């Protein structure tokens, strides 16, 4: 029985969760609200997400919202049941390292990335001119972050040593950065470039992007 993900395909959270499903071999279907207003209705707020957001997961009658919670639920339930891929190790110390880099991503990487991506999204999809100063500031912040990542990744193929949920989280953000024309932030750094190559050439990731017209064109 396929799980159901209520989400908009143009959301980066969709890439994140679909990639997890593919890595773990989980059957899924995407349910896309007809319009943005549909996730703000009293019924949706009462039965799906009280803050009027996506994604929402429905799995055999069980329902949960928030992408990080959904990701951990899927891993806890399905990891190693259909594929050999391990996204969060059972080893305590290895799992701690994965969680450390997830926290690093949320604490230091995602905020400047969101600042940059939101400017590009507003211009490309909403027709609102981006603010050059905000773009410049976001790129400067990301350059500082990437300088640190270049050191963190030295001698490693992946953040925690082996491919994990931490890498998928970063893949989602980096795909958006590249898609909206800022791939130079990655290309100028050989270690990060190698890491991104490792991530973006995974079959599950290539399949995720190929199936999503919002990020494949």
UniProtKB/TrEMBL annotation:
Reaction(s) the record says it catalyses: RX + glutathione = an S-substituted glutathione + a halide anion + H(+)
E.C. no: 2.5.1.18
Top-level enzyme category: transferase
An example Gene Ontology CC term for this record: cytoplasm
Every GST C-terminal domain range: 91-217
MF-aspect GO terms: glutathione binding; glutathione transferase activity
Top-rank lineage group of the source organism: Eukaryota
Gene3D superfamilies: 1.20.1050.10, Glutaredoxin
Single Gene Ontology BP annotation: glutathione metabolic process
Keywords: Transferase
Pfam family membership, one: GST_C
CDD domains assigned: GST_N_family
GST N-terminal domain boundaries: 1-82
InterPro entries for the chain: Glutathione-S-Trfase_C-like, Glutathione-S-Trfase_C_sf, Glutathione_S-Trfase, Glutathione_S-Trfase_N, GST_C, Thioredoxin-like_sf
Name of this chain's protein: glutathione transferase
Species lineage: Eukaryota, Fungi, Fungi incertae sedis, Mucoromycota, Glomeromycotina
């Amino acid at each position: 029985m396929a799980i159901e993900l209520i989400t908009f395909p143009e959301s980066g959270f969709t890439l994140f969760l679909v990639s997890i499903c593919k890595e773990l071999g989980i059957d899924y279907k995407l349910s896309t609200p007809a319009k943005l207003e549909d996730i703000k209705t009293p019924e949706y707020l009462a039965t799906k997400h009280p803050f009027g957001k996506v994604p929402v997961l429905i799995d055999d009658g069980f329902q949960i919202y928030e992408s990080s919670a959904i990701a951990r639920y899927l891993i806890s339930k399905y990891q190693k049941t259909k594929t050999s891929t391990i996204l969060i190790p059972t080893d305590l110390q290895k799992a701690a390292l994965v969680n450390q880099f997830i926290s690093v991503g949320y604490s230091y990487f995602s905020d400047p990335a969101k600042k940059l991506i939101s400017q590009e999204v507003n211009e490309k999809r909403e027709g609102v001119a981006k603010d050059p100063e905000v773009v410049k500031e976001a790129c400067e912040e990301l350059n500082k972050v990437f300088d640190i990542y270049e050191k963190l990744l030295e001698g490693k193929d992946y953040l925690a040593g082996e491919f994990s949920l931490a890498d998928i989280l970063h893949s989602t953000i980096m795909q958006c950065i590249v898609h909206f024309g800022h791939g130079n932030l990655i290309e100028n750094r050989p270690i990060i470039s190698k890491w991104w190559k490792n991530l973006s050439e995974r079959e599950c990731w290539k399949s995720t992007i190929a199936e999503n017209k919002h990020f494949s064109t």
